[in-house]
Each structure stands twice: as structure tokens, then as C-alpha cells.
Predict the structure.
Amino acid sequence: MGASKMKQPFLAKKMKSAVERAVMLDARHVDARDLLLDFYSMAPGFMGGSPDKAREQAQAIARIDAARGHLAVARLAILAKDTVVVEREMNAAIAVTPDSVRAYSALVSWYIRAKKWPQAFATMDRYIKQRPEDAYGSYHVGRIAAASGQQLARGEQAMRVFLAHPPKDAASPVMSRAHLRLAQVLKHQGKRAEARSALERALTLDPRNDDAKKALHQ
């Protein structure tokens, strides 16, 4: 059950204090600085939000971890709707860590929100070329196909490859999302019975997958 509107500001300030404390104890705590950046960039001023403080956190993150620093700046650029900086910073993060899916995934997510489907596929193709053995490349191809309704045969095959040979760190919620994405691709193709089976499997793996619940009853 979510917090009431009256309690939300109190909880936000309490969270901010806890995260600031974590940074005081460990100045190199990037995850805590990431949370602070999000708080400062999105909270209203009367709750302690501050664009300047958000930029300070991005700069501090960059001094600790260059790739995550670029992603932090990109997040601020997304809020500012500065598409040039978003693409520049996310591609800079990819350049720093070309073997890590994290930056590619962030850029793909942004392209998906912007409905820039060719760019989304092209970004993941770059990763697959770099790391053809990583099943997460297949997962993200399926994710783009599910969102766009494009390259459906490829998307179905890619997601089935991921599900057949998942990474060792793919826990049940991840596998549930994969079945959901597969169901979305199948629905685009008119394969409703197969899509329903995929959704049922998604909920077996993670009963809290609300997106799968909603899709099952549509």
C-alpha cells in the first residue's frame, strides 16, 4: 500500500537524510550519489530539490566512475529535454565501457520512449557485435520488437534464445519479464494462444508482474 500524500514529503526527506548519511560515510558510494542526484533533480525546492546540487552529484559520480558519470549527466539531460546531450553522454558511456550492456540498455530505453525504433535496434546491434555471446543482447532485441511491433520474427527468435539459454544471474522476475516481452511480440504477430501461454508462464515465475496480469485480461 502506497504512502499517503501527507506522508510522502516526510518519507522523501527521511530517504534524503539516509542517503546523504551514506555519502558522508563513504564518499565513493556511487549508488547513494545516484539516489541523491534523482532526489535533487526531481524534488521541488521546498523539499530540498536543487538542479545545482544534482549537477554536483553528477560531477562527483564522474570522478569515481566515468561511465556512470556520463549516464548521470544523460539523466539530467533527459529531464531538461536536451536530446543532443542525452545521445552524446550515453554514447560516451558506451565508449568507456564497450563490453558492458548497461549503457547500451540505457540508450535503448531512451530510444524506446522516443519511439526511435531504428536507432534502438542499431544500438543493440552494436552491443551484439561487441558481445555476441551475451544473452542480454537477445533480450533487448526482443524488448525493442515488443515495444515497436517491428522486426517481429527476429524479436521472437531473440527472446526464445534468451529464454532457452538465460544468463546465470537472470532471476525469476527477469525471466518473467522476458516471457511478457515474448507475449507482446507474439500478440503483434496475431499468435494469441501462444501469447496467452507466455503470459501465464510470466505470472508463474513472478505473480507480482502486474504488466503480465493486465495483458492477460485484455
